[in-house]
User: Which sequence fits this backbone?
């Protein structure tokens, strides 16, 4: 017996030693505790998650079994800090799952999903834990709590309530089953969408097939072909490749081919997402109904600025009704223009829109991407956003020699005006097959104060900009620079966070408030004083001419009603799915067409679909929340008018906005906005900015 005991003890010690050597678990020796990306291997994730969930449960058990009466500190605050290792591992794994994925990582995600759901349910459906939180909540009015502590208490109680704590035992079991199924399905949706997207390649070898494509598009396609080991020019469905081809190719047949591929992703192929969508939507409704809500949209919007789904529908209609006629006028005018330069069809089809829109824009404003791109070298744009943050908020960025998860990534130390450390900022700009499309901001660690120690955040900005080639640096379009500012606004929200509790710092705010910091930053992309501070020709060094800046500003609202309607379409489609109170009856594509009938301004293509690649709502965090982009545009239009009034670099206005950014979710979003702007926002502010109304 002694020998067996000794062997077991040695094995236990060895396992513990291995765990401590796991770079996802062990204390990082790097400056600021930065992630050890150079040491992390795929084989580290599963044991790290297993250990994290074990520790998390032990921390929950310690709260539940505490013999002392429940207090804010020993229950609510202790719960806020419980599961710290789960968060630490999750931040790294799930961010890399999107930014640098692999089949192996996706398989690991499938294995982790039920474990994660089980842990979440261990917390949210823990009756004894809930009763301790409830005991503190019931005496909230007699407690001496700071405002952020009071909000944490209220948020914690509401979170339990919204996650099934008041359900019967049988309903709790059902709720758990629904959550586990939903978790796996959302992962499957993203996996299907990425696989279907990456499956398409269009290789062109004949010069006639390249008609109309500018040099930088050809060079990018040639570089992509070389990278894949094929002859000719390779076009795929990544944003720079797809949008560039649609905008410039003279070959209508090829535009139609790539358009149909893009708009049939994960539809009718081996990665078809239609059944997955039906299951996701039905499960979300079942969860909402189980919790006592009319539909999933009501459940989602309850804790947002908008408060309920009826208010969302009202808001969307306020923006749709005046914009639809204007959008139809814009499309009619584009049809007239297209015919005037040789288009011989009855009306423009969706694969014609970008092509003729670009030609009309050039004709109206004498402005092209090729004219502008030489002035927007990526390195200069990076410096420009750093300098803007410096002028507004006094912060500085310095490139750091720290490990990264991919050779394309750069990392910077961020310091405040007094020299204190604020954050690490990771920048990952170029497309690759292992990265999902689009642009986003995320965090590897969020700001918090725990046991008297402040942990500053690690923020990441991810895009899919054109890679440099052998002869040309990375040159981005003005639209891409605007996107860069947008995501940098989110990044500032994370980097400037000043709070106690990670669940209420940075971008952890009402979902329809989270886009304000990003949307407002886009405005600087059209300001002459700012553009002239950095936009210089990468070959000659000449500054961006006044004439081009004038054209950029003049063309800002080109086809604004059309693009406004396009965004509304996404929000309306999202709400149609998430106000359902029964399973989808019939085909998903039919449901989509019916949902969007009141927003169509171009002829629909019966075989094409948005939903099967609509990752924002089916695998991202925007279910019943896509409207928030437009909601935030309203906030941003109204908010930026204060900068316009006081000066775009006005220190006092910037200080007021920094205060808004620093507070995160510790203060009610409506209160934060009124404090900054002095009044509630109105939808008319956006409609006026877009020149849809006067």
Assistant:
């Amino acid at each position: 017996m002694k020998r067996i005991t000794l062997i077991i003890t040695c094995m236990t010690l060895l396992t513990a030693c291995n765990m401590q050597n796991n770079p996802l678990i062990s204390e990082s020796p790097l400056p600021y505790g930065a992630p050890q990306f150079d040491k992390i291997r795929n084989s580290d994730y599963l044991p790290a998650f297993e250990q994290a969930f074990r520790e998390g449960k032990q921390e929950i058990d310690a709260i539940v079994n505490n013999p002392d009466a429940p207090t804010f500190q020993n229950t609510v605050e202790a719960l806020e800090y419980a599961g710290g290792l789960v968060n630490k591992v999750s931040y790294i794994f799930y961010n890399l799952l999107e930014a640098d994925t692999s089949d192996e990582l996706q398989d690991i995600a499938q294995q982790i999903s039920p474990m994660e759901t089980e842990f979440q349910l261990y917390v949210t459906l823990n009756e004894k834990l809930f009763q301790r939180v409830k005991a503190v909540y019931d005496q909230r009015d007699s407690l001496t709590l700071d405002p952020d502590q009071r909000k944490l208490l209220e948020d914690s109680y509401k979170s339990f309530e919204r996650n099934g704590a008041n359900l019967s035992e049988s309903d709790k079991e059902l709720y758990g089953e629904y959550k586990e199924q939903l978790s796996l399905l959302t992962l499957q949706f993203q996996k299907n969408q990425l696989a279907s997207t990456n499956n398409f390649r269009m290789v062109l070898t004949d010069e006639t097939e390249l008609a109309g494509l500018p040099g930088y598009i050809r060079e990018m396609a040639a570089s992509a072909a070389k990278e894949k080991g094929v002859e000719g020019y390779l076009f795929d469905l990544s944003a720079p490749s797809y949008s560039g081809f649609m905008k410039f190719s003279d070959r209508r047949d090829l535009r139609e081919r790539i358009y149909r591929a893009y708009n049939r992703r994960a539809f009718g192929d081996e990665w078809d997402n239609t059944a997955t969508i039906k299951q996701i939507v039905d499960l979300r409704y079942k969860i909402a109904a189980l919790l006592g809500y009319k539909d999933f949209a009501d459940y989602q919007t309850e804790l947002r600025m908008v408060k309920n789904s009826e208010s969302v529908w009202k808001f969307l209609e306020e923006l749709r009704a005046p914009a639809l006629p204007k959008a139809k006028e814009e499309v009619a005018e584009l049809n007239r223009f297209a015919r005037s330069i040789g288009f011989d069809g009855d009306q423009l089809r969706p694969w014609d829109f970008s092509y003729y829109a670009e030609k009309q824009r050039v004709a109206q404003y004498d402005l092209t991407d090729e004219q502008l791109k030489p002035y927007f070298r990526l390195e200069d744009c990076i410096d420009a956003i750093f300098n803007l943050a410096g002028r507004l908020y006094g912060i500085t960025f310095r490139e750091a020699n720290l490990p990264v998860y991919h050779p394309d990534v750069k990392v910077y130390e961020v310091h405040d005006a007094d020299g204190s450390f604020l954050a690490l900022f990771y920048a990952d700009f170029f497309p690759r097959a292992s990265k999902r499309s689009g642009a986003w901001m995320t965090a590897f660690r969020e700001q918090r104060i725990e046991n008297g120690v402040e942990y500053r955040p690690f923020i990441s900005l991810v895009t899919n900009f054109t890679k440099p080639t052998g002869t040309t640096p990375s040159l981005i379009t003005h639209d891409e620079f605007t996107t860069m500012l947008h995501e940098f606004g989110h990044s500032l929200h994370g980097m400037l966070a000043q709070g106690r509790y990670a669940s209420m710092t940075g971008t952890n705010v009402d979902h329809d408030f989270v886009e304000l910091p990003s949307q407002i930053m886009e405005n600087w992309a059209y300001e002459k004083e700012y553009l002239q501070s950095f936009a210089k020709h990468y070959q000659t060094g000449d500054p961006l001419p006044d004439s081009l800046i004038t054209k950029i500003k003049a063309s800002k609202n080109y086809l604004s009603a059309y693009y406004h309607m396009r965004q509304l379409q996404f929000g309306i489609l999202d709400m149609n799915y998430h106000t359902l109170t029964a399973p989808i009856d019939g085909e998903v594509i039919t449901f989509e067409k019916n949902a969007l009938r009141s927003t169509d301004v171009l002829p629909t293509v019966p075989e094409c679909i948005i939903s099967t690649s609509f990752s924002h709502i089916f695998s991202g965090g925007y279910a019943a929340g896509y409207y928030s982009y437009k909601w935030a545009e309203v906030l941003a239009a109204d908010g930026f008018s204060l900068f316009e009034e006081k000066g775009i670099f006005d220190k006092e206005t910037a200080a007021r906005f920094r205060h808004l950014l620093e507070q995160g979710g510790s203060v009610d979003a409506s209160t934060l906005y009124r404090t900054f702007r002095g009044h509630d926002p109105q939808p008319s502010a956006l409609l006026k900015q877009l020149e849809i109304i006067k």
